[in-house]
Design goal:
The protein has 181 residues and is α+β, with helices and mostly antiparallel strands. The protein has a single domain, classed as Gcn5-related N-acetyltransferase (GNAT) (Aminopeptidase, 3-Layer(aba) Sandwich), CATH 3.40.630.30. The chain has six helices and eight strands, in the order αββαααβββαβαββ. It has helices at residues 3-6, 31-40, 43-50, 59-66, 115-129, 144-153; strands spanning 11-14, 20-25, 73-79, 85-93, 100-106, 135-140, 154-162, 165-172. An eight-stranded mixed beta sheet has the order 1-2-3-4-5-6-8-7, sandwiched between helices. α2 crosses α4. The longest helix has 15 residues, at 115-129. The structure holds coenzyme A (COA).
Length: 181
């Protein structure tokens, strides 16, 4: 399968309920909307993403998260038809360049529609095109949804549980795009 075919979902996507969203790389101008997205998330979703709940996303974090170099640090966002950010998936390559940590969040009302799977598949495809093959994910051990999603998109090479947090080392399965037959 060609890279172009595997990257075809960047742009408009149709979700399971027929609604649409646009997937695109994050931009520095997204910083305020990133903070607004955080404010729209339920405490449970914030906790699953950040392992802590803060009253708001610290501005310095929003700045860092919105400004990536598109190589070693990358984020892909999903935008709703009314132009709000509704999901973000990102990777951050480690210093030795052999492993990238991934993280994802989908706004509660948009969960369960296939968006997380599409976004993560897109991120893995993008990273693979940059030569990144191994990924690290940290998630709450009770986060079955994320665990299952990762298991469908990637092969788990290592699985380590400690104090309620699971760390996984992953390599994407050959077909990371859920739209593929
Ligand atoms: C984990 C997360 C990213 C998944 O995103 P999503 O858009 O809901 O994922 P999808 O719609 O692609 O669904 C993936 C699977 O989760 C399950 N699922 C999703 N939403 C569900 C819901 N509301 N109820 C029950 N099951 C659900 C389904 O089994 C689905 O599999 P399917 O394809 O067989 O239907 C999202 O739930 C989220 O943002 N969680 C909080 C942050 C987080 O946990 N991040 C991970 C650590 S970085």
């Amino acid at each position: 399968m060609s890279r172009a075919a595997r990257s075809r979902s960047m742009g408009g996507v149709t979700l399971k309920d027929g609604t649409t969203a646009v997937l695109r790389p994050i931009r520095p101008e997204d910083e305020p909307e990133l903070s607004a997205l955080y404010a729209r998330l339920s405490p449970e979703t914030v906790y699953r993403r950040f392992f802590s709940v803060m009253a708001r996303l610290p501005p310095s974090w929003a700045h860092i998260l919105a400004n990536v170099d598109y190589e070693r640090r990358m984020a892909i966002v999903a935008v709703s038809p009314d132009n709000r950010l509704i999901a973000v998936a990102r990777y951050d390559l480690n210093d030795s360049g052999n492993e990238a940590e991934i993280a994802i969040v989908v706004q509660d009302q948009w969960q369960g529609k296939g968006l997380g799977t599409m976004l993560l598949a897109e991120l893995l495809n993008y990273a693979e095109a940059k030569g990144i093959r191994r990924f690290r994910a940290h998630l709450l051990t009770e986060n079955r949804r994320m665990l299952d999603m990762l298991g469908r998109l990637a092969e788990v090479l290592e699985h380590h549980d400690e104090r309620g947090v699971t760390s996984l080392l992953l390599i994407p399965r050959p077909r990371a795009n859920p739209e593929d037959p």
